[in-house]
Write a structure and sequence with these properties.
Order of helices and strands: EEEHEEEEEEHHEE
Shape: globular
Helix content: 10-25%
Mean pLDDT: 80
Structural class: alpha+beta
Low-confidence stretches: 1-16, 197-206
Strand content: 25-35%
Length: 206
């Protein structure tokens, strides 16, 4: 298992945030994006969300994901490819609310993309899943990302993978697993944090 200091660190440059009524600062949904796709799925929100947290199952139903490593809850390394071609990259989950929201960004000095997934209940008891992606490449690829052709290709890919996810979870009927943790600003939130350890030796008395 990789240690935390061995992994690349994300640049502290998150999108806009908002303080909620409970005083917790959360991300705002991406107001600017290159791609936004939505699909309705015939399972409850909890089921869809729970399966969506099982990243290592994604190669079972997606067309481009070949492998997934998750050295810690907030970091995922994806291997994607077509045929013999492969590309490996890591992302950081910066925000995660059970049954509602997940946001990520690329782990590079200048992240090449960021994205988010929203889960919302439908009137029929199913789930509406929306994926938004903002492409932020640098150098020569920057102009390419702005082209309508690349945007359309990315949108088609996202749509296709959402439909693959829909067929997969509807076929299962229930989730194969779940991770119900909450993440804020790239850190897992603990309901009962451990108290700080005293540096003073605790000697038995009595």
């Amino acid at each position: 298992m990789a240690r935390e200091h061995d992994l690349p660190q994300a640049v502290p440059d998150p999108p806009g945030t908002r303080p909620d009524s409970d005083g917790v600062t959360r991300r705002r949904p991406l107001r600017k994006q290159h791609v936004e796709e939505t699909v309705d799925i015939g399972v409850p929100v909890r089921t869809a969300y729970n399966q969506g947290t099982q990243f290592k199952t994604f190669p079972r139903f997606t067309s481009v994901i070949r492998g997934v490593d998750q050295p810690r809850p907030t970091v995922i390394t994806w291997t994607i490819g077509y045929g013999p071609l492969r590309r490996r990259f890591s992302v950081e989950i910066v925000e995660q609310d059970p049954d509602a929201y997940l946001a990520w960004r690329g782990l590079k000095q200048h992240p090449s993309h960021q994205g988010e997934v929203e889960f919302r209940p439908t009137e029929t008891g199913g789930t509406s899943v929306t994926v938004r992606i903002l492409l932020e490449p640098n150098g020569a690829a920057k102009g390419l990302a702005r082209s309508s052709k690349v945007t359309r290709m990315t949108a088609r890919l996202v749509r296709r993978e959402l439909m693959n996810f829909k067929r997969f979870i509807e076929g299962l009927g229930q989730e194969s697993g779940a991770w119900r943790g909450t993440i804020r600003n790239g850190r897992v939130q603990h309901d009962h944090p451990e108290p700080p350890r005293s540096r003073v030796a605790q000697w038995p008395v009595g």
